Amino acid sequence: MRADRLVAVLLLMQSRGRVTAAEIAAEMEVSVATARRDLEALSAAGVPVYPQAGRGGGWALLGGARTDLSGLKASEARALFLLLGPAAAIAPEAKAALRKLVRALPSTFRQEAEAAADAVVVDPARWGEHRRTRPVLVDLLEDAVVRRRKARLTYSGRERVVAPFGLVDKDDTWYLIAGTPDGQRTFRVDRVTDAEVTEEPAERPTHFDLAAAWDEVVTAMEARRATTTATATVDARHLPVLRDYFGRHCEVISQGERVRVTLTAPTALDIARQLAGWGDLVIVEGPQTVRDELAKLAAQLTTLYGRQDQGQWPSPPTPPARRSRH
Fold first, then answer.
1. Phi, psi torsion values for 211, nearest 5 degrees
2. How confident is residue 291, by pLDDT bands cut at 50, 70 and 90?
3. How far apart are CA 40 and CA 38, in angstroms?
4. I want to staple 12 with a disulfide (CB 3.0 to 4.6 A). Which of 76, 104, 148, 251 is the partner?
5. What is the C-alpha separation between 100 and 11, in angstroms, rounded?
6. Rg (CA), the chain
7. Mean residue pLDDT across the chain
């Protein structure tokens, strides 16, 4: 029994006042028997729906009862469908649910809701890249999260049984936050080679908040990545580009025609590599290790490309021989 269909049935009843099982079946694209079961399920759940026998009968909400969902304002309905629209273009299930919800809305809202659903398209692929597909394991782990079931993972060659708390999509890389015997852990889904949802119940901490948990993971990860700090100056007009390039790893120290900033990365070489293409637009004040790495990169580029006038091109470096594992 699908929760989205029950919600749609409830909204449909409110918008029309009284409906028959046949009308619900036609709108929801299910059998009449399924429509009756949905109505009975709503009644058993405590929703005040009741049947009226005889000619002109059907099912109705007791006393014209209203639900919070169907009491949406026009602006709230528009915001909801603006959010659901892009998802519906990607997931067939979301598209089907959206269609049912549109039908169940009051007639005065339908046209604007449909326009909102088609107003935005989200293209997750960057320029020059192919569109990435959602990993198959994400659907399986998502099912474990929703049904509160433990999952057996093969991760980095080791089998683990975890209690899935939630999934996070960060720039098309998926992460699973889960409980383990050693406490809460984060797993990259693309490193999971095999997964199986068990029927063993998984307990989720009462006050667990997925967004807050992920924020803690990101903060800890960024702290580990930001072990080297450099101080540099950049022309004020180029600051927005530099900040966009380094993100949270660029902090302004002082403003002026030349802006002083701190830049962080795991190593001095990482900072130098990111700044090499900026030339003299960014001047590194220190530490000396970053300046030395920039000088090395400049020397390598000069060696590689400085012979162009003489028509001499160095051969590509020979990769080191692989050591046998045997």
1. -60, -45
2. very high
3. 5
4. 104
5. 10
6. 29
7. 78
